[in-house]
Amino acid sequence: MRAAGRVVLGTALAGFIGVAGIGGYNLYTGVTGGSGPSVPDGAVTPAEAKDTAREFLAAWADQNDLRAAAFTNDAQSATAALSGYREDGRVEKLTLTAGEAHSATVPFRVKAEIAYQGKRTTWTYGSKLTIVRGQTTGKPLVDWKPAVLHPELTSGETLQTGMADNQPVRVLDRSGKVLKHGGHPSLDPVLDALRARYGDKSGGSARIAVTAVRADGSPGRTLHVVAKGRPGSLRTTLDEAVQRRAEAAVSERTGASVVALKPSTGEILAVANSDKAEFNAALQGQTAPGSTFKIITAATLLESGKVTPAQPVPCPKTAAYAQGMTFHNVEDSENPGATFAQDFAASCNTAFVSLAGSIPDGGVAQEARAVFGIGLDWRVGVTTFDGSVPTEGGDGKAAAVIGQGTVQMNPLTMASVAATVRTGAFQQPVLVPKSVDDRTLATSERGLSPAAVQQLKGMMRLTATSGTAARAMAGLGGDIGAKTGSAEIDGQAQTNAWFTAYRDDLAAAAVVTQGGHGGDAAGPVVRQVLAGR
């Protein structure tokens, strides 16, 4: 059933009386207006403007779209627009009040009663129409354009009543503080992603509005709010204080990204990137991690009994695996009398390459997956890249043991690696608590052996106190451990700088593209995050 419409004429049309509904419209159609003979050409007369406006508005108010469109100079476009106004705009009742005509232009007031999903509102606004003479018939017609429906509509635009695409969501940190757009620039894309994914689980209600819709279907301006909506709340694992430190740390360098998390739970405390873009390098990056990956290689060797921390493993200037590619150390350093722990602390590439033959093809990849959770399907709460380790042999294996070749990681995965050493067991990183959506988190096949935990922590502490990470970690107390890395990337003049470390129940990892030495460029970023504990 069509809802009733009503036309009320202003002082310029005082000779006519408006009546609500279809009956009122029929009264109008029977009035000739007494305005004298029609003028087939020349300027539209005031009487013609009044009569045509009256007929058009009456038909529109009565929802007779075809008849209303017949009083325009573009009946096809007008029919579609008028029908869309009523159907897409969810207009149940319409009252149109004509104002005083100015030459061929007639202003009018619109009172539209809108109903959408149990919400009702009355929308009032002013518009106007202009009467022109038809090019072929000479009859006075409404000069059709979308602005007749609403003055803010432009060519090709229509209007639509509906819910906002994203439900209003207040994203909170772990203590309930609101994380606002712009407050922590690195988080803006993350906050958008969280609102899009968890809007319907946040307990709020979406805003309902009448919006202009562009010709390509994309939403434009809001013309009227039907219901404001009620923001929901989504509590994350982020820590506003740690996030602030992370933002400050990356802001001092170009191409820097850092992630901080809680080793005991896997909860992500901070995510920051110096390059503000939709792509989140800290969570989604895919690049070689350099010598920070030696943590996983060392775990593979220690757990298989191929080496011990105190075992002598010389560190020559260069080394080749199976007479293949020749590998070298940073600045061609060497230490013929080094132990395995010292090789780790000094980040000796050649010592690790010399041990590659004792690892089965795919052995490092198996350790990475089974113990450290690398390459599993992490369900963090936003899109992430969860690491990739090759299973190839030959030079590819030799490159992989030192974090080069096709090993692909990011600050999130490397922070998780450090956290796994700290606790001895993989805890899948999360940004949104599992309780929000009851999703299944990734689990590793097993934890590190107690002996390997003790050995790795000792080697990472040695690195933090007297190795390549000593400068960055100087003065930090508590249970600390660190590993540096410098990853060579094809086409780059400088290596990417990497650093991962833990301090008690806080772990962090950072990369600085083309930063050079890990301890010099990425180390200060991680230190700044850890120092505020």
Write up this protein:
The chain is of the alpha+beta class. 29% of the residues lie in helices and 21% in strands. Strands 1-2-3-4-5 form a 5-stranded mixed β-sheet. A hairpin with an 8-residue loop joins strand 15 (480-487) and strand 16 (496-503). Helix 1 (21-29) packs antiparallel against helix 2, helix 8 crosses helix 14 (450-466) and helix 9 (340-346) crosses helix 14 (450-466). The longest helix is centred in the C-terminal third of the chain and has 17 residues, at 450-466. Mean pLDDT is 90; it is low at 9-39.
Can you lay out the helices and strands and say which pair or pack?
Elements: E1 5-8, H1 21-29, H2 46-61, H3 65-70, H4 75-87, E2 91-98, E3 105-116, E4 119-133, E5 140-142, E6 158-163, E7 169-172, H5 188-198, E8 208-213, E9 219-227, E10 232-235, H6 240-251, E11 256-262, E12 267-273, H7 281-284, H8 294-303, E13 318-320, E14 326-328, H9 340-346, H10 349-354, H11 363-370, H12 394-400, H13 411-423, H14 450-466, H15 470-473, E15 480-487, E16 496-503, E17 507-512, H16 518-521, H17 523-531
Parallel strand pairs: 1-2, 7-10
Antiparallel strand pairs: 2-3, 3-4, 4-5, 6-8, 8-9, 11-12, 11-17, 13-14, 15-16, 16-17
Helix pairs in contact: 1-2, 6-17, 8-11, 8-14, 9-14
**Alpha-carbon Rg, integer:** 35 Å
Q: Uncertain regions: pLDDT < 50 for 5+ in a row?
A: 9-39
Instruction: Count every helix, treating DSSP H or I runs of 4 or more residues as helices.
Output: 17
Describe the main β-sheet briefly.
Answer: 5 strands, mixed
Strand numbers in spatial order across the main sheet: 1-2-3-4-5
The percent range for helix content is 25-40%
